[in-house]
Amino acid sequence: MPSLEPISFARGAPSADIMPAEALRESAARILRDDPAGVLGYGVGSGYGPLRDWIAERHDVEPSNVVVTNGSLQGGVMLFDLLVEPGETVAVEAPSYDRTLLALRERGADLLAVPLKEDGVDVGALEVALDEGAAPRFIHTITNFHNPAGCTLSLEKRHRLLELAANHGFLIFEDDPYREVRFEGDDIPTMFSMDTSDSVVYASSFSKTIAPGVRVGYLIGPDDVISAVTRAAVNTYISPNMLVEGIVAEFCRSGAIEESIANVRQALHARRDALADGLRGYIGDEARFVLPQGGYFLWVELPEEVDTSALLTVAAERGVSFVPGADFMLEGGKNALRLAYSAVTPDQAEEGVRRLADALAALREGAPAA
Amino acid sequence: MPSLEPISFARGAPSADIMPAEALRESAARILRDDPAGVLGYGVGSGYGPLRDWIAERHDVEPSNVVVTNGSLQGGVMLFDLLVEPGETVAVEAPSYDRTLLALRERGADLLAVPLKEDGVDVGALEVALDEGAAPRFIHTITNFHNPAGCTLSLEKRHRLLELAANHGFLIFEDDPYREVRFEGDDIPTMFSMDTSDSVVYASSFSKTIAPGVRVGYLIGPDDVISAVTRAAVNTYISPNMLVEGIVAEFCRSGAIEESIANVRQALHARRDALADGLRGYIGDEARFVLPQGGYFLWVELPEEVDTSALLTVAAERGVSFVPGADFMLEGGKNALRLAYSAVTPDQAEEGVRRLADALAALREGAPAA
Question: Which long-range contacts (CB under 8 A, 24 or more apart) does B1-6 make?
Fold first, then answer.
């Protein structure tokens, strides 16, 4: 058999063709001309001022409510260091982002897994747990185009979650990196924008709207939380990356970011469509999924008897990869898989699903090799 | 009195005129043209490959012995997280870098302060402590052009410290950001380069050879230590800043870094000379100092009765600032001060010392205002 060009649905990363290298080059040239001292000197722990201001304006908050970090994961990690003592209960979604689960586990959090539904986290299940005495310090929730599940938290549930947080005294960590990558449907207001009881810390980043390699993320939240994270930042790295934050600030100020977002949306919309069409055509009803309205990921549930870890081995021999669902779960997820369409062309998406269908058939026939 | 343009000897940072904005602009343009996918995608926890390779070659080690971090402080902090349990003994220099002392204290380290001499840390005093039963996990030492003390660890003491580390089973954390900023005298080999027992973890950065705003530092050490720090890095921020590391890699590859180092050395040499001449001329024998052969800092001891915290207040009214010595000490240092000459022109250095001498005279006359 001739070796195939591998097709990866595994990594949640954009392909090079949708990352704005040329516009970043221009932004770098301008900022190094216009503010060399600002981007080359030590900065402040809260981030490059003009970028912090831009983010604050975009989210309609004061700059003092914003801390810019070296990627949003680092912001989250610093927040966890502040909030999580060993044995502390933290509510998480099942499935959820594996790095967040790991960071919480490493800090000794007692994880309370709340299932996801088509319209986001099962707030009713959370309420039952709270009524039974669970007292989480916070809930971590990925609200738009979930990683890995692809779903989006409904407006009604956002309101209910805010009520529960206010009544039960827990925080909501609203993790929202995909918000701007919406292909269709209407934006839903963030919980942060509707919060009236200082219950929400909001996280986002420029990884999906510009490029992951810039490693620029941010937290927005109540003054006291943001001040504490900023102090931790200073003690960890003095200041975040001033040069890149300057480049990103100029990229935003110049309007290049709107063009980049439009470009990403259009490309990923086509990729999602090709993937979803491929699943319907090659696998059919056995592949159950909620069509994501944006973001990078499509979560597929196969019939219960299919072990997606075994499927991965057979699929890899056919030149296609993905992440088994169990990697995102505290338990279960054995018949699920995450397909990232962010880095494949529409043609690759279709061919990848064809190979996946072939692998599924082979797995069932007990024929591990093609 | 007309208000004076303030002169700061306080912050250990370079002035804008010695930071290579134009060469960085060119490096950014080239790397975004030549390797857009590499610098814009998620990278690996150990840093941008070509930069890691350049550092490895420069220090004559394997790339597997290098991890590139978001500034060297963050590398140190991740190392401390691995090595320091609460109650662990860590030997530090007195005086030492305040952020390092704070990071160690925050992790519950039991600090063993070892005095500095003109030729670096007092290895004899350390040996006495070891013989009396002290069992540090590691010693933190700033070997060249110490911050804040300006001194450099002699070759003989480097050998003795390596012997002690091997015999007593502690690590040496060789913190060496200023090495390349030598004005005069011969380079002294790093302890890392002479180590035969995997006793040394070496830290440096590009803050002093390029600019602090790039926030790129690195650790070099035994494979197991570097692997552990790299895992911590991945769990903290996925990968360090790929875009800036790409720019720095191109800056190094192109040779721009040699020009930048030559430029920094020349400028800081002149600034040090102006400061030292000023101290001799305006304050005279009462200002005792070891002339640093490189780096950013000159450490001054005034007569014992002078409280440099009180002096700072009087000096600030005269438009000059510095950092009192006590800020760098676990105890003592009340009559010392750190003067950073990295951000002042030679003319400013001279004028700054004139104001300082004036403040000292006023303090002694009990006249707090000019």
Answer: B1/B370, B3/B319, B4/B318, B4/B319, B4/B355, B5/B319, B6/B319, B6/B320, B6/B321
